[in-house]
Hints:
Layout: E1 8-17, H1 21-32, E2 37-41, E3 54-55, H2 57-65, H3 69-73, E4 82-87, E5 90-94, E6 106-107, H4 110-124, E7 127-130, E8 132-140, E9 143-151, E10 154-165, H5 172-176, E11 184-187, E12 192-198, E13 207-213, E14 216-222, E15 227-232, H6 245-255, H7 258-263, E16 268-276, E17 280-283, E18 287-288, E19 291-292, E20 299-300, H8 308-323, H9 330-358, H10 366-377, H11 379-390, H12 395-398, H13 401-414, H14 420-445, H15 448-451
Parallel strand pairs: 1-2, 1-10, 2-7, 4-13, 10-19
Antiparallel strand pairs: 3-6, 4-5, 8-9, 9-10, 11-17, 12-15, 12-16, 13-14, 14-15, 17-20, 18-19
Helix pairs in contact: 1-4, 1-8, 2-8, 8-9, 10-11, 10-13
Amino acid sequence: MRGSSAPAIEHTDVVVVGARCAGSAAAIAFARAGRDVLALDAARFPSDTLSTHLLWPGGVAELRRVGALQRVRQLGAPPLTTAFAAGGGYQVRSAFTPVDGIDYAMCVRRTGLDAALVATAADAGARIREGARVTELLWSGDRCVGVRYADSGTAREVRARLVVGADGRRSTVARLVGASRPRLSAPSGRDCYFAYWHDGAADQRHVAAQWRSGSDLGTAFPCDDGLLLSLVQPPARPADAGGGRAERRYQEAIERLPGLRLRLRDCRRAGRVRAATGLMSYFRHSAGPGWALPGDAGHFKDPVTAQGIRDALRYGRLLGELAAPALDDTEHLDTALAAWERLRDRECLGIYQWTNRLARGTAMRPLEMELYRRAAADPALADAVTEIFSRTAHPEDIFTPARAAAFAAGALRDSWRAPWPVLADLVSECRDTVSERREARAFARTAPADAIPSRPLRRLAAPSGDRHA
């Protein structure tokens, strides 16, 4: 990479690897705090990326917190003011509880969304360098002190007090710091296929909709430019994931979801089917001496609950807000980074476990159908469940023991002639609860301060005289 001459060297307070949701949010927060920030991305914006890109009100509120909401709204995605869910023969409609005054969801294609975030970061004072691919990290002892990257064929080095790896699930930074192996992980039981449609149902442009039938799940989310994002998540089928099978599996799943098929009746496909298969939800070690991993680089959940962009924005922003005051003292910085990771873990573990349940790829169980039945008749319950998606309520706040007992009693009453499926579901629910509590205790034992990888995969000596060494 070096060629015949040493790479050009520059200095900054923070170098952010990856300038999409998490990276831009972090860059904005650091820049607002008066820090010098350089954000590198291999893409040139506007640029698309594989994403289902639904933002619940909690995610829209994060856009406003980083200062990008006005730009994003100008892209034309309609406010989604109603959530609709159908399953088990029941239909549930709910409104959104406001999050900082935001009472609507949005589905914004990543080409426009990411460009808006990058522009907001630039306005905040961050320097954005596109077409820059990071190849190596720079080290002084066990501390990360910068990156080496290629820019139009030229090797360059950046020295920094902090390297932020916001470069996604296949994070180069995570690999180079030795954090690729998760602290906690769970394979998804669903594959994900989606496509855009020219939306012909003007009267449904305010509704974020989901259907379940058998073991299939499908959605319809109106988005910008008059389009509709329709996603299906059939049970995972690893042997049937490659080649041209995405188109077939997508169409077959739509046929098995009558409600989604009806929603798409007056719509016309725009473009190819995209696929995300072999998904794995995880927490990685996300902070160490001189480095941090916000966004999917450090934590990823199955798209079935649409949490990724919200979390990327939130924990990218919080990383900047917590770490910016500590950059001048390495001990203070390491403490701040560990505190940031613990905060993310604490806030995300419950929704991670709940998401994993929904991602199993199994048919609706009796207790789930009882939930749909009750929510269809009780708007307050429907709204409360929707709050979980916006992260204004925790799953355990809604699915209390008393409510679980009521669901079980209702399900048994409706199936008293054949109670065995309900009883089996109750046993399974108890096992899940015990398993999740054990998982949470084991996860807590690998707290960031105790479990930072001790040695990176590869280290490069920092030149003598480096002001950040």
